[in-house]
Amino acid sequence: MAEMIRLLQNEWMKIFKRNSTIILIAILVGSVFLFAFVSSWGNSQQENVPWKEEVQQQIIMYEQQAGNPEATDKEITYYEEQQVIAEHRLEENIPPLDRGSFGQFLLDSKSNLAFATLFTVIIASGIVASEFIWGTIKLLTIRPVKRGKILWSKYGAVLLFSLTIALIAYVTSIISGWIFFDSGEGVLLTVDNGEVMKQSIWVESLKLYGLSFVNLFIMTSFAFMVGTLSRSNALAIGLSIFLMFTGQQMVFLLQEYTIMKYYLFTHADLTQYLQPRTLVEGITPQFSIVVLTTYLVIFLTISHLSFTKRDIAT
């Protein structure tokens, strides 16, 4: 155990000794601040509609959606709950969160994890491949440490980095939100066992970040596998980024085919279960967890076999 901790610390220091890592973190922080500024400016340009009028229009829309004969049971339940919340707002005079408020920005800021995912993929793809490119892999393997421990220490360091960069994105969103947005008025409401209750924006934002982190975790593991298997930093980064931007588009194009129920990117975004309709009809959170776990086991198995069984000289 002590040996694994030392290896993990060593890999962690390697990551942060690279100037590129500091640059990536700086770009992430700058991107979050830019997103906050642009969002604030965009909201200031929009015409303010009295919230009661907006809620009344939403009630009409929810009634229409719930009454749609083609709506699924899940969609009907979702729109009925939203209608109950909207009616409760009017009855109790409880406004929703302002679009230009800190609370709404914090909820929307989960999209910043897309930047975090991109940068973590760059680190994950190169943590093994760079050892072969620089020729330092031989120095690692001549030590009296099993190859498997070396590999898992690298994977553990990558996971810690992914958690760190997600935390940086969240904290930076909070700070930039305080700077560019007013506290605003409004309350976040939810339905629990048929009862309308207040929901903390902090709890909701952490839930959104937590669900979005699953995609970051899976993409990090995929990039780690490709980098280990191909020993090519460029290939791992290129393939991972390509799939990041095209994965869900493939789901939309081919969602009618049964095979898409087992496609990785059908399940990577767990926030879809907070919406009335999933990417592919018939999937459940439990099924998504099983599919993602299966892919994860495959990724790590391939990484382990590739690193421990292949000749270092190849």
UniProtKB/TrEMBL annotation:
Keyword set, alphabetical order: Membrane, Transmembrane, Transmembrane helix
Ribonucleoprotein among keywords: no
TM helices/strands, residue ranges: 21-42, 113-134, 155-181, 208-227, 234-254, 287-307
Species of the source: Thalassobacillus devorans
Domain of life, per lineage: Bacteria
Name recorded for this polypeptide: ABC-2 type transport system permease protein
Pfam family for this entry, one: ABC2_membrane_2
